[in-house]
């Protein structure tokens, strides 16, 4: 490495990458002062080098040969803002094994195969930073990776997907259905043309895996995360939540605790849930993200801010670039991966949750007793029951106390089979003490 500057290779120059270049340029003097040496951007890999980037970038920097750029001798830090599993994984393992620092925003790769990147970083003695991969601009991974390393984190509960939070906030505010709120999110540029990764919870599940890995010192992948999307949340569900003093959010919940055999374990899930309006996450509106961390000594901590968008995400990338550059100049390293705890993953069936179930039933004698009997049979205790009638039919809204998810799922299955139950209008988990 040249001792008088730190040389950067940028892979990807789209929504995030163009903002990284702009901030590198605009804040050049401050960054130099903070690092103690200037940063120099030596190349940018893209698919279509001739494309207008909306930014004043020297055309000579562009190449389509990302691997060639990574391998150049004059590159100290590789910044990856392309996304996806391959070829990003090959580029980054090549860089790390060669001892180059890596800064990436690639949540999909970290959640699917973070182990390969961490192993390559250990092999090459290189830094791997990825603050932008979860909750965009919010400083969250560094606190989990460093500040809370003297404590024992017990639970992380987060709203980590801006698109779905915008949709659910809009449904809550206006009474709109999912489709109408999604159309609004698309018009305003929050939702992508294909919103599947957001609304089906894949994006949040990737982030949940990264958070759980850091919080519990255990390798957790996206495949370990129980995932349920939010496309089934209806205007009626939101109205029912309101009646209970709740709202509905797509939550990621990572929790440490004993499994059914008493062994310390980790459960990670993503699903829509009702939460009371008094919960700190209930007031997180629009496309904002927030993560609520509970630790034994620290107590409750809340992280809040913009979880997406080119400029906020670039802020997190720039922070990582500064850290990596400082480390290179001082000959130090970022904290390496901490996965010593090797905790087993607890299946969703063992997670203790509460359910809100809305049933359309025949309105006649003995129906309530029969329904209550099904709950009792599966050892699920009922907390509240509300009934509203329409001629021969009635709607029952039942909220349970906490029970293993498997017991609740079996209860719902048996309710479905009853001839007095015309339909099960909705089943939602309830979180946060309502
Ligand atoms: P974009 O799609 O806007 O940009 C992707 C960039 O990668 C483009 O410049 C594209 O080139 C380039 N690229 C794609 N394939 C290749 C290839 N094979 N070789 C070289 N370059 C390639 O993505 P974003 O900027 O939105 O996201 C980048 C990363 O940041 C992703 O991992 C994403 O998950 C993450 N992220 C994004 C956030 C956001 O708000 N956008 C928030 C947090 C994280 P070209 O321009 O020529 O097509
Ligand atoms: N699609 C994601 C969101 C982008 O809506 O939050 C940030 O990861």
Automatic annotation (TrEMBL):
Cofactor(s) required, per the database record: a metal cation
Pathway: Amino-acid biosynthesis; L-methionine biosynthesis via de novo pathway; L-homoserine from L-aspartate: step 3/3; Amino-acid biosynthesis; L-threonine biosynthesis; L-threonine from L-aspartate: step 3/5
CDD domains membership: ACT_HSDH-Hom
One Pfam entry name: Homoserine_dh
Record's catalysed reaction(s): L-homoserine + NAD(+) = L-aspartate 4-semialdehyde + NADH + H(+); L-homoserine + NADP(+) = L-aspartate 4-semialdehyde + NADPH + H(+)
Residues that hold NADPH according to the record: 107
EC number(s) recorded for this UniProt protein: 1.1.1.3
Keywords: Amino-acid biosynthesis, Metal-binding, Methionine biosynthesis, NAD, NADP, Oxidoreductase, Sodium, Threonine biosynthesis
Root EC class: oxidoreductase
Any one GO molecular function term: homoserine dehydrogenase activity
Active site, UniProt feature: 207
ACT domain residues: 356-429
Gene3D superfamilies referenced in this protein's UniProt entry, alphabetically: 3.30.70.260, Dihydrodipicolinate Reductase, domain 2, NAD(P)-binding Rossmann-like Domain
A Gene Ontology biological process term: threonine biosynthetic process
Domain of life: Bacteria
Chain residues that bind NADP(+): 11-18
Annotated L-homoserine binding sites: 192
Record's function text: Catalyzes the conversion of L-aspartate-beta-semialdehyde (L-Asa) to L-homoserine (L-Hse), the third step in the biosynthesis of threonine and methionine from aspartate.
Family per record: Belongs to the homoserine dehydrogenase family.
Protein name: Homoserine dehydrogenase
């Amino acid at each position: 490495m040249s001792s008088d500057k730190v040389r950067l290779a940028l892979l990807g120059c789209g929504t995030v990458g163009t903002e990284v270049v702009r901030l590198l340029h605009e804040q050049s003097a401050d960054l130099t002062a903070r690092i103690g040496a200037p940063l120099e951007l030596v190349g940018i890999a893209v698919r279509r080098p001739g494309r207008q980037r909306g930014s004043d970038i020297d055309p000579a920097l562009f190449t389509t040969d990302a691997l060639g750029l990574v391998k150049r001798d004059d590159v100290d830090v590789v910044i990856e803002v392309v996304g996806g599993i391959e070829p990003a994984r090959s580029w980054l393992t090549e860089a790390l094994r060669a001892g180059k620092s890596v800064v990436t925003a690639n949540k999909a790769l970290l959640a699917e195969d973070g182990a390969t990147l961490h192993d390559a970083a250990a092999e090459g003695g290189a830094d791997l930073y990825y603050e932008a991969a979860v909750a965009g601009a919010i400083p969250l991974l560094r606190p989990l990776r460093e500040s809370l390393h003297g404590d024992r984190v017990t639970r992380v509960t987060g709203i980590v997907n801006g698109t779905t939070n915008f949709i659910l906030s809009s449904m809550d505010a206006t009474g709109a259905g999912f489709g109408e709120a999604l159309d609004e999110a698309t018009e305003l540029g929050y939702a992508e043309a294909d919103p599947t990764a957001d609304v089906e919870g894949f994006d949040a599940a990737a982030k949940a895996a990264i958070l759980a890995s850091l919080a519990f010192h255990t390798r957790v992948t996206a495949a370990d995360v129980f995932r349920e999307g939010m496309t089934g949340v209806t205007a009626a569900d939101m109205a029912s939540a309101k009646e209970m003093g709740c709202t509905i959010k797509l939550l990621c919940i990572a929790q440490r605790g004993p499994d059914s055999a008493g062994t310390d374990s980790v459960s990670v899930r993503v699903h829509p849930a009702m939460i009371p309006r008094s919960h700190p996450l209930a007031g997180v509106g629009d496309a904002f993200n927030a993560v609520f961390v509970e630790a034994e000594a620290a107590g409750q901590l809340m992280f809040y801010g913009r979880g997406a968008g080119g400029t906020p995400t670039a802020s997190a990338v720039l922070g990582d670039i500064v850290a990596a550059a400082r480390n290179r100049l001082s000959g130090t390293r970022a904290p390496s991966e901490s996965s010593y705890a090797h905790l087993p993953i607890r299946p969703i069936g063992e997670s203790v949750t509460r359910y809100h179930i809305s049933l359309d039933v025949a309105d006649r004698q003995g129906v309530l007793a029969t329904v209550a009997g099904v709950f009792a049979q599966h050892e699920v205790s009922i907390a509240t029951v509300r009934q509203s009638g329409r001629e021969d039919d009635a709607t029952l809204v039942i909220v349970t106390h906490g029970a293993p998810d498997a017991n609740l799922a079996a209860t719902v299955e048996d309710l479905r089979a009853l001839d007095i139950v015309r339909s099960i209008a909705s089943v939602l988990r309830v979180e946060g003490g309502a």
